[in-house]
Amino acid sequence: MLRYNNNYRLRYHSLSSEIYQWRVLKLLSQTPHCVKIAVVVATAVSGMSVYAQAAVQPKEETITVTAAPAAQESAWGPAATIAARQSATATKTDTPIQKVPQSISVVTAEEMALHQPKSVKEALSYTPGVAVGTRGASNTYDYLIIRGFAADGQSQNNYLNGLKMQGNFYNDAVIDPYMLERAEVMRGPVSVLYGKSSPGGLLNMVSKRPTTEPLKEIQFKMGTDSLFQTGFDFSDALDEEGVYSYRLTGLARSANAQQDRAEEQRYAIAPAFTWRPDDKTNFTFSLTSRMNQRRVTTAGCRKRERLSRCQTVNVCQQISTKGRKTIPILVMRRW
User: Fold this and answer.
1) Best mean pLDDT range from 51-65, 194-208, 209-223
2) Which phi and psi (to 5°) does residue 119 adopt?
3) β-strand 201-207 against 158-160: which pairing, if any?
4) Residue 301 lies in a domain
5) Could you tell me if residue 166 is inside a domain?
6) Residue (of 106, 102, 147) closest to 129 by Cα position
């Protein structure tokens, strides 16, 4: 409401536009010149506000927010973070780790990508209850000691996708960590589920499987001890519905070690194919081919040493066994 006190009063009420304009004109004819200007300005501003309020009407819009549910983690698939929530090592079923009564540690592919280990045992360096440095810096074999029990020889407890990897002492198979989706360690006796095994625990490795999301990765790596490595990882769905999918992972590496004559060359390729006839059924066919060429065993060949009157000379001679394993021969001479 606008009021002017000098024997003249102007009151603004909610009247129709015609009555309002008539009253303003009548008032202007009876007021001084300066007052007329002020009243005209006030009237113009009031009229603008009236027309503005009539022209601009708030519109109510409905905004619908939708969010897709978080993808369910699988015990055989990738984890969203470095901390896995599912595991199948203890129960052989896809079970949350919080509901598993056994002690389990999972090293995911995300964590391996951060640390860039050269072997599976290096990937387990931060796992409690696992000793990985009993063979020095050699990465020839994944030799582990879990809770004080060595898993070697016929009691070696290395599994791939829940199946025991056959090996005997220095004839154990070695899997490169780049080919794995995760590495799980279960501590404690496991003979009820896995048969004859070391009472300390076991290592279960899960290989990479096809995904329905496009994945294209090429890796080049260089490091100490003349490390040169290249790898690739491709995966995608073969149709729009995601019924068929594939994955192809490969690796080539050459490196030395801190020991003398400890060169190694590793080649691996792993194609995989998955068929999903429905949401609850899938069939995965995978093949892993690897070749490790080494000149030493777990400890490597040491350089020439001289202790008092005893001199030891180590001569490494390579004997090939079907192009996969090498057996060194140590020749000692004393005088």
Assistant:
1) 209-223
2) -150, 170
3) parallel
4) no
5) yes
6) 147
Segments forming the whole domain that contains residue 29: 1-49
Residue 236, in any domain of the structure: no
| Domain co-membership, 120 together with 177 | yes
**Based on the domain organization, do 26 and 94 belong to the same domain?**
no
* Domain end position, chosen among 207, 239, 263: 207
Q: Indicate the pTM of the whole model.
A: 0.66
Domain boundary, last residue among 177, 207, 237: 207
pLDDT tens column, 272-312: 999 999 988 889 999 988 888 765 554 444 444 444 443 43
Any domain includes 145: yes
Q: For residue 179, what pLDDT is reported?
A: 93
Express each pLDDT in 59-69 by its tens digit: 778 888 776 66
Q: Are 14 and 122 in the same domain?
A: no
Dihedral sign computed on CA atoms, order 251, 255, 261, 262: negative
Is the separation of the CB atoms in 326 and 320 below 8 Å?
Answer: yes
Output the CA torsion 87→177→209→186 (10° steps): -20
- Residue of 332, 334, 264 lying closest to 296 (CA atoms): 264
* 241, 250 contact by CB (below 8 A): no
Could you give the CA distance from residue 167 to residue 72 in angstroms, rounded to a whole number?
A: 35
Output the six-digit token pair for 31. 């007021």
- Tokens standing for residue 132: 């990985």
End-to-end CA distance of the chain: 120
Residue type, 77: G
CA-to-CA dists, residue 325 to 77, 261, 297, 298, 316, angstroms: 31, 16, 10, 12, 14
> Contact 187/102 with Cβ under 8 angstroms?
yes
- Cα gap 104→201, rounded to integer Å: 10
Q: How far apart are CA 184 and CA 203, in angstroms?
A: 6
